[in-house]
Amino acid sequence: MAISIQLYRSAKHFLERFEKQFNLIFFDIEMPELDGINLAHEIRNEDDSVRIIFVSWHPKFALDGYGLNALSFLVNQLPTNLYL
Q1: If you average pLDDT over residues 19-28, what whole number do you get?
Q2: Cα end-to-end span (Å), the chain
Q3: What is the CATH T-level fold of the domain 24-77, as seen in this structure?
């Protein structure tokens, strides 16, 4: 099984290049310009089968994510400098 990982600098950048080519998308709820919930709405308009996993510091957003048929919601508890 081949795995390809792609990184995008913003939700807007992702949408400009989005094609129905992804099986799984991870993204943060809180992003500049366009938050993860609104990004998921945009994605669902184009592709209702792609699996979405939200990541956030705030578990309060989990219900919004599952309302968009998210596969999972991960509560991020790691300091930013550990994964950037």
Answers
A1: 85
A2: 27
A3: Rossmann fold (3.40.50)
Q: Enter the pTM of the model.
A: 0.76
Every domain of the chain and the residues it spans: 24-77
Residue with tokens 């956030």, as numbered in its chain: 56
Distance, in Å, from the CA atom of 18 to the CA atom of 10, rounded to the nearest integer, reads 12
Q: 11 Cβ partners below 8 Å, 6+ apart?
A: 27, 31, 33, 34, 35, 36, 38, 39
Q: Is the pLDDT of residue 39 over 70?
A: yes
67 close to 29: Cβ distance less than 8 angstroms: no
- Above 70 in pLDDT, residue 78? no
